[in-house]
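Re: that chain you flagged

S.,

Sorry for the slow reply, it's been a week of failed gels. I finally had a moment to sit down with the sequence you sent. For the record, here it is as I used it:
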Amino acid sequence: MKKYVLIILTVAFITMLPLFTSDYKSSHDTKFHLTNIDSLTEQIKKDFFNPSKIVGNIGNDFGYGTNLFYPSLSHYVASYINVVIDNPVISVEIVYFISLFLSGISMFLLSKALSKNDYIGLISAIIYMLFPYHLSDIYIRDAIGESLLFIFLPLILLGLYELFNDNNKKFYIFFVIGYVGGILSHLTMMTYFTVLILIFLIFKYKKSIKYIKQFVIASIFILAIASPFLVALLQQRLLGNYNVFVEGVMVQGTWGNALNILKYIMIGDNWGTGETRFYIDLIVLILLFLTLKKYKQYNNKYYNCILIFGIISLILSSKLFPWDLLPKSFRIIQFPWRFVTFVSLSISILAPLCISKFNDKKMLSIILIIFMVLLAQPNLKQATNEVIDVNNLEYWYGLGYQKEYLPVNTANNLDYFDNRNHDIIIKEGNANVEIINNDVPYLEFKVDGNATVELPRIYYIGYTLLNENNDKVDFYENEYGFIEAKLESGTYKLDFTGTKYDQIAKFVSIISILGFGVFVWRKK
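Prediction finished late last night. Pasting the structure tokens below so you have them in one place:
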């Protein structure tokens, strides 16, 4: 096992070397992630164990709530690293290295379990790591959340495999960790992944029903552990009015973003450009052809399911599927080519099966790895030549392309939002207002007189306003999406404390993590 881990580690190091040894360039989502990571780092410095989900700098420093809506596991990991090394770029590079390495390990474990062959497991891991779309997530798209997702998908499938082989302990470990990690990495992709898994379980209902107890227990642990994120998101959805939930905002020409299915065999497509690569490498195509040619020799229930899963994912990624005929709520994936993640999962498992027919598997594996690493080199170039200056980050990029996490009222009044200063504005009445401490999200101020005031904070569910007696004071979202309140003379403190449901969710999550550890430890 150690030598295979070392090989996977070496391939991850070689693959990431260009990122570590050259200037970090701006790619598709680079500035969104770096600005949010840098801003979250500041909140961690204020409260290491309980950083605020509202960050400063972004959103004109009115307090932006990316982490209330966006699955931010990748941001949190990078931010905690950034607290130590004080460089958001290197922090992101470290996260990419970790995710690439661990994705190889998780695929190795899955493929080895299915094939009972170390060499097949190893080649599966290398294919998965070096899949052009996976490398595009790192070098071209800078999609750190989706990159992290590559770790967790094999763990979920490995958990299902262990369950159907009556190994409940391993099922709980892999399935729960995989699902929690997946949800906190990319909720949208996990939603579609879950639908595909459910379809599989329904078709296999005679066997699935046997394990209904295990699925229920695992689901409870998953939802409980992930509840701080899920509860916060649900509250913003039900109690607020935010741009991300407006029908059509996150859906723009879904079918038009789907792939021509020939893209999969257009080897070298988009080399030398800043565009995402979707093709399957030549070596992998050859291996896949050899496997499918003699597929009956490897035919078993698990590989059949993975093959069907891959075919469905391939169709969903392409223009063969009528995306634009679906209701907009079914098109939250935005870009159907994201299903290439699932295609890569399937191909990585199936393509190396033909290795079992060769005598010298060791030498063949070495040759394949060398050629795959060489073929990956053109994909190790970032999308642009714009060098990122960590000392001069453009924080407005942190809002997101659609400024999706703003209140609808703010999104509809961007001129006001862009030009508003950071003073407390008196809307009605006659009063003098003095800001005592303005440290996003915290705001302490004094009011002399009676007035309706607009505070320099974007409205999110979870803020608390206290008077000098520590009594809660009512406030509301105004027509511009800012916090507004009718106040009397006194000193006031505004802070994002989360709701009581947020506090309960944090407690439940901690208890569930501890409980899950004990549950698994005691499981036979």
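What I noticed first: The radius of gyration is 25 Å.

Talk soon,
D.
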